[in-house]
Amino acid sequence: MRYAMAIDTKKCVGCSDCVVACQTENNVPIGYCRDWIVEVTDGTYPQLEIELRSERCNHCDNSPCVRCCPTGASHYEKGGIVTVTHNKCIGCGACISSCPYDARYSHPEGYVDKCTFCIHRIGKGLKPACVAVCPTKCMYFGDLEDPNSEVSLVLKKRKHKTLIPEAGTKPQVYYLI
Amino acid sequence: MREEIITSGRLNPHIDPHLEIWHWQIPLYLFLGGLAAGILFFAALYTIMGKEEKYPGAVRRAPILVPFLLVIGLFALFLDLKHKLFFWQLYTTIKFMSPMSWGAWTLMAITPLSMIWAALHIRDFFPKWDWKYDILKDIETEILKYKVHLAWVMIVLSVILGIYTGILLSAFNARPLWNTSILGPLFLTSGLSAGAATILLFSKSAKERRLFAKIDILLIVIELFLITHLFMGFLASTSVQIDAANLFLGGPYTAPFWIFVVVLGMLIPAGLEIMELRHVKIPHVIPVVLVLFGSLMFRFIIVYAGQMSRWLY
After folding, report:
1. What residues of chain B lie within 8 A of the CB of A106, using their CB?
2. What percent of chain B has pLDDT over 90?
3. Chain A partners within 8 Å of B92 (Cβ)
């Protein structure tokens, strides 16, 4: 099993619903976020091109955060989901420094926190909160090893990219372009 | 023209607008750890070479400082932790891929070792020292029999400690400035140089001071050579590493780096030490303080600048 997400940059309107849904679902403290919207503007006026992306932890196959964690608090769950065990985390910040996507933050309670692909929801057969709430239905989530999953099908059909693949992390959030 | 902005207002504290997760505690620890490694390295080296009587400043006197350096360093590390009550989790596992894990274990081994070493030579500072209890006296005589073995363990651990302070940072490929394997040898050399300089301060004989002044000059030359290679490597690399180098070549860290680290911390003390070797009278505390200051600034600048360097996508 290999969980992954595909996000359609052509459909995303940057409404930040995913951000709010995540904050609500996961009790993210005020002033913090586990996912966020990036707007890329390319070109010179009036020839401009905009790309909108909802970004989060990439649940990398070769996660630098898991590698550098001195206690094993950062680890892989079933399906390659990267999570942090709170009472094993010492808050040293190594994983925060190691993430090229800056997807982690130090929770006010001390441990390091980040997107979990809503692991508590997918265990119940639900989709992650951000995917479930998206009004343009621009996000797809599922198992890459299942050829008939939503995410496998859309990745077969559409051109896609990942963020900073040259960092060698093998990210598992795909952007449809 | 390409512009990339986060529009949802992500402003995670210490992450945005650029990383600032590590503050003064980490560079202070890296400095103290490197200095401790430097002092212990020379103490062990001259014990193994059988030159304890010739260089008592290095073998017997300077190491008294090391337990204090390591304990302050460890305390700084502890202060840096955000989930402090769980610090013991470090010692429930060994993660070979995590430099921080084997650094923690190295510290666990070298700190008590440095205390034993300091205790063995306590009479150099307090000639009337008495261990009072027979068992302590017995332990001392027993350990003294294996002093050279102890020195071998110490020399290995001190090199690991010295090099680890650099590798801790170089293991992060997310921060292009740190992501260079030269940082390990560079921090080791800088720690050895700081160690040699401190030994100068503890040495009572002119002969020993001359030796360590020479060693320090050599180490500074090696450091300058490694720094040149650091920048050559960056400038010949990818755009993110060119950007990282530019933090020091016109960017915000240009003045602090070249003035505090290279000129005040390396060139001037090396010049003063050369003058001293040529019998010009200079209080030897001046080059020592400059070397230590440069070494501390070097850690501060690398830790802070590294957090500013990043991948753009």
Report:
1. 13-14, 21, 82
2. 92
3. 71
